[in-house]
């Protein structure tokens, strides 16, 4: 979506069937809901249970926080964009910021998982 805004011809993306749009919106809503609620529940468990206050669980808590932020900040913009016929209506700066936050979250997760796998064994 971010690169398509400069192509000029938006009719290709706007001619999507209502069923396909419904399925996309339903799956994105499910991902947002499960991502926020599930990771929030795990975070609460990790904070409240004193026996889980160890290094491996701090990594998990950090991953949960990152996933909550991505689900709560980036995905609603994508949801609205799909709802508007895959048209980005927020401007160029917002597009770049949301894209940056999405990529930052993915790389953060990758960098947290790689060292954690070597230190936990």
UniProtKB/TrEMBL annotation:
Species whose genome carries this gene: Fundulus heteroclitus
Record-linked Pfam families: 7tm_1
Topology relative to the membrane: Multi-pass membrane protein
Signal peptide residues on this chain, from the entry's feature table: none
UniProt-listed InterPro entries: GPCR_Orphan/Phoenixin, GPCR_Rhodpsn, GPCR_Rhodpsn_7TM
Functional summary from the UniProt entry: Orphan receptor.
Domain of life: Eukaryota
Entry keywords, A to Z: Cell membrane, Disulfide bond, G-protein coupled receptor, Glycoprotein, Membrane, Receptor, Transducer, Transmembrane, Transmembrane helix
Transmembrane regions listed in the UniProt entry: 25-47, 98-118
Protein name: G protein-coupled receptor 85
Domain (G-protein coupled receptors family 1 profile): residue spans on this chain: 38-121
GO molecular function, one term: G protein-coupled receptor activity
GO cellular component: plasma membrane
Primary location recorded for the protein, binned into one broad class: membrane
This protein's record includes keyword Repeat: no
